[in-house]
Amino acid sequence: MTRYFGGRAIALTVLATLMVGSCSSGGVKEQAVLREQGDNYAAAPEAEQTTATGEGEAARDAPQQTPQLIKTANIALTVESVTETLDEITELVQQQGGDVLELQDNQPQNTLTPHTASMQLRVPQGNLEGTLVELSNLGKVESKTIQAEDVSGQLVDFSARLRNLRKTEEMLLDIMERSGSMTDVLTVSKELSNVRSQVEQIDAQLQDLRNRVAFSTISVQLEATVATPGIREPLRDRMGQTWTRATHSVGRFTTSLLQLGLWLIAYSPYLAILAVVGWLIYRFRKTVPDEQ
User: Fold this and answer.
1) Please, are residues 101 and 121 in contact by the beta-carbon 8 Å criterion?
2) Which phi and psi (to 5°) does residue 167 adopt?
3) Domain segments of the chain: what residues?
4) What distances in angstroms separate CA 287 from CA 86, 145, 273, 278, one per listed residue?
5) How far is CA 86 from CA 102, 127, 243, in A?
6) Which residues fall within 8 angstroms of residue 106, CB to CB, at 6 or more apart?
7) Is residue 103 a contact partner of residue 87, using CB atoms and an 8 Å limit?
């Protein structure tokens, strides 16, 4: 309501500007018309305040509305086959009138790592409980949580602000049609653009809240009960893995030798100097006793 009265104050400011312009031009008839419009717009907040008071009393007498809740759920399952369960969940969500928002399938890298996957689902809020029951039947439930957020107040607030802004928009359009000078038209047009920007922003927030209330999200985590089976010939598999590790080890050792050789080549001048110094010291020590 504060935004609404703020819009009315701007309208009165623009209207006062028009009245001053009319006085300077000497148009008595136009001045009387503008005064009459100013009285009507000034009296409007009081009338609407009375109307709002009456609506408030009627709202208190009206029955309480159903809370508008945003519901989210999480469920973790241990299943026999993750691949088959993913297909079953996809079909289940389609039957419930929902969608799969996200899917991450983590294939095992070896026989010791279990197959895991995660999904993000969206279903109509009325089908949330039934969907969770069907999901629970697909495997062993390790954990399950449901959370709800009441956004009734936000919906009422956004609706009221949007309604008031649209009334302000209508009022500004009416003032623009009655304005005569280009300056007044531009002033009202700028304020009208700001009001419409706020209308679009609040309308988008309102629609987002309504969609989140209408559809609930479910996060599903899946894990296989046993490790993914390996190749049918385990001995051949182990021998192949051993050979792969051996070849990798030889490759790393060869690379290390090559790197060492490059280091020796890079430091070869210093090594040559050290070798010459060492040989001179050796010759000096060897010749000294011979002279004595």
Assistant:
1) yes
2) -65, -40
3) 1-61, 68-230, 235-291
4) 87, 91, 21, 14
5) 12, 19, 36
6) 115, 116, 117, 118
7) no
Helices (H), the chain: 2-25, 28-61, 82-95, 128-136, 152-178, 182-214, 234-266, 268-291
Residue with tokens 């030889």: 250
Residues forming beta bridges with residue 116, ordered by sequence position: 106, 223
Which among 147, 244, 171, 145 has a CA at the least distance from the CA of 3? 171
Q: How far is CA 101 from the centre of its chain?
A: 13
Q: In the 8-state DSSP scheme, what is residue 69?
A: E
CA–CA dist 39, 75 (Å, integer): 63
Q: What is the DSSP letter of 222?
A: E
pLDDT in tens, the chain (292 residues): 333 334 444 444 444 443 433 333 333 333 333 334 344 433 444 444 444 444 445 444 545 568 889 999 999 999 988 999 999 999 999 999 999 999 999 888 777 788 999 999 999 999 999 999 999 999 999 999 999 999 888 889 989 999 999 998 888 888 878 777 788 778 888 888 898 889 999 999 999 999 999 999 999 999 998 654 544 556 776 777 788 888 878 888 888 888 888 888 888 888 888 888 888 888 888 776 555 4
As a residue count, the chain comes to 292
**CA distance linking residue 139 with residue 152, whole number of Å:** 36
Indicate the burial class of 98 (C-beta count within 10 angstroms; 0-12, 13-18, 19 or more): buried
What is the pTM for the complete model shown?
0.52
Of 222, 235, 236, give the one whose Cα is nearest residue 107.
222
For 249, which DSSP code? Answer: H
The answer to whether 85 and 77 have CB atoms below 8 angstroms apart is: yes
**Tokens 């009456």 belong to which residue?**
54
